[in-house]
Each structure stands twice: as structure tokens, then as C-alpha cells.
What does this fold into?
Amino acid sequence: MKAEKKQKKSTKRDSSFGLIIYKSTVGDRIFNAVNIFLFAVFMIICVFPFYYLFINTISDNELVNRGMITFIPKGIHLSNYKALLNISDLGKSFIVTISRTILGTALMVAVSGFAGYIVTKQHMWKRKLWYRMIVITMYFNAGLIPWYLNMLMLGLTNSFWAYIIPGIVAPYNIILVKTYVESISQELEESALLDGATTMQVFTKIIWPLSKPILATIAIFGAVGNWNSFQDSLLLMNSNPGLYTLQHRLYIYLNQATSISSEIDAAMVDRIAAGMLSNRIIKYSISMVTVIPILCVYPFMQRYFVKGIMLGAVKG
It folds into this structure.
């Protein structure tokens, strides 16, 4: 009875529209405040490492070497990034990584979108068999050594296509697209078929535009995965350093930061600043170079992310 009375006190009926307006209680306000505080702390924990790296790359190098830059940048300059332009092969690795990210993500989204749509068609020959064969690859794999031997036999070692071909078919993304397409009204497709549209026309004119949220979601997965990947470069490109990815270069540079300073042309920057490019500053600067591009792209895709995942998870 007491709980019912408290509930009645916390609600108020709007006579003009007949709506019940909920009035928050003290407990609700405390709960919201605690939630906001905890999420704010979590956000700071996630963001601060990137912020710390960035302010140390643009602050006075002498202060950075002394460990005096913690929260606020001092003596702001961009000479560290200019100096990195003279590190051998860094620009080439950047182009390789950008190319594999754009091409690999585009092909993966196109194939995942069409495959996810096709496996929803009841009249597809052996539909359940093909779909199960796609799903089973998520749970079983041969391992690293058989994977390398398979890539070797296919002639994909020391080849740019080793970055693209293995990632075109992504089982998890196909499942996401399939469940999303099943949530789209079937009447739209049926009316198009009655008007004489082909399966490909239905996909390109109706399904593809309506599936933008889930396609943007898997595009995020693909772009981040391609950008951050370095294991395939490490294992498959031993004889072709020109195809090293940016993350592979970062791995090498972080282990050889001492020798990198000798590759920097001091004529590009102030000689005093060049002399202060310590191992710490080089590591910070290269790390930021690899992180900034994907951080710039992600916010533009974020608005599709939650919508695509939630709608794609309605059905199993």
C-alpha cells in the first residue's frame, strides 16, 4: 500500500491531453547523478591516454623529456610532426594502410550486403546449407600455421591482395545484414517484383538504401579492423618492406626508436628542437600519426552504429 501511495504521488495527469506525466523522485535524481558521474569518469579514463599523447607531441620537447607535461600543453609547436615526414618509408606505409582500408572496407561491405540479402531468400538453392557453412567458420579455424601455408599456396605472400581478399567475406557482418534485412517489410520487395524488377534491382534500389544503418555499422568494423591490422603484414610481407602497413611500421619504430632519430633531417626543423627528439617523443608522435585518421572518421559514422546494431539484433 505504501509503495502504491508513493507511486501515485510521483505521477500527475495532464488534463489537457490525458497524458500521465511522471515526476522524478529523490531516489531517481540520485540514481541519475551517480550514473552521470560514473560515465563521466569512464569517459575520462578512455579519452585521457589519447589527450596525453597529443599534448606531449605538441609541447616543448625539453619539458616533455623532463616529464613536466601532464594536463596542459606548454610551448606549443608542430615541429615533431614535420620531423616525422623525413623518416624513411613512413609515407609509403601510410598510403598502403589507407588503400587497404578504403578498398578492403568497400569490398567487404558490398559482399556482406549482397550475401546477407541473398541468404534471406527462401527460394535460394540449398540456402540453409550455404548459410550454415558461413556461420560455422566463426567457430572453427585451422590455426595460424595452416592459414600461412594456405596464403603461401595461393600466392598471396608479399602481395597487396593479401590484405584485401581474405577479408572480403566476413561471416559476422553477413549475419548482421541478414537479420537487418529480415526486419524490412517484405511488401516493399513483393511490390517491386510484381512491377517486373529483378533481384539485383530490388537489392540496389530498395534493400541497399534502406540498409544504410547496418552497412555503416559493418563499415566501421571493417575500417577499424583494416586500419589496426598488422599481423598479416608481419607474417606475409617479409620480403617486401614496401607493403608494410602503418601499424607494422609503428611496431618496428617503437622497438627501434633510438635509431630513428638519426634518420630525421635537422634542416627541416629547428636544430635545438631536433636535438631534443628523444625516444619518448618519437614514440608519442608516431603513435598519434597512426591514431588520428581513424579518430577523425569514426565520429561521422557513430550515428549509424547504435541504430544498426539494435535493429540488426531483433531477430536471430
About this structure: The chain is about 65% helix and 5% strand. The mean pLDDT is 79. The beta strands are 11-14, 19-22.
